Amino acid sequence: MIRAETIDEARSWAAGHRRAERTIGLVPTMGYLHEGHLSLARRAKSAGHAVAMSIFVNPLQFGPREDYDRYPRDLSRDEGLAERVGVDLLFVPPVEEMYPRPPRVTLKVGSLADRWCGASRPGHFDGVVTVVSKLFHIFRPDEAFFGEKDYQQLRIIEAMVRDLNFSTRVVGCPTVREEDGLAMSSRNRYLTPEQRRRAAALPGALAEARRLCREGHTRADELAEVVRRALSNAGCSVDYVAVVREDDLEPVEKVTGPCRLMAAAVVGETRLIDNVALVPGRGD
Ligand code: AMP
Question: Which CATH number fits domain 186-276: 3.40.50.620, 3.40.50.970, 3.30.1300.10, 1.10.10.10?
Fold first, then answer.
């Protein structure tokens, strides 16, 4: 595995592979790798790509009161994990390499960022698409791999690619979970053992609502209420619970077509997000 810290090295690695008629798969991350990240790299590998993984804690996507400074970092552990799953190039640029000066031009997400995580974290998705577009320009990947765990992010990046005519194909990959259902996340390490137990209420409630929907309970308000109640019983404070259409993330009253149940909750100081697909059943 090659480790690159500069944009020039990353660009020439990608150019070399293109000349050799290899396709390029990109896995953007903020590091502190877990099985969720590694599943994206394995997927890229099994598609036959030369695989680049970036590890960059992007200051642009953190709000002033968010956890940029204390976001977990462990580069030497990450290097071992990335190498083991077959990452070919690990791109670990220092902040000054990606932002040698405060950027004078950034991207702005439209209405897809108005609600849900976008409403709680103003500017967050603008920071995400800005850095992802930089990475897409640096690597010009054939495919880029993102987790469904961050569902609104996935939809926004798909929209960025469509609206700005990137030639990269975005591949959404399923959420990898701990044994009790909690979606893997670098931020899970903030949780105390007691908070960790309470956090399991989130995937539990989403699974319960998914089951109810399949049994024919397709009213969005009822499904959301199941999740809200379970979260507050577990002592988690609710940021949002929403039943949305998969394509534009607009809320629905009833689950008829492809929908997602998305939720964000705060346990202690830690904000958790998760989502599940809802499949309507007829109830008979
Ligand atoms: P992050 O390092 O949290 O910015 O995540 C980097 C990429 O990994 C994003 O595309 C995430 O959606 C994805 N990811 C994070 N957690 C998981 C998970 N539990 N399962 C699948 N993908 C994930």
Answer: 3.30.1300.10
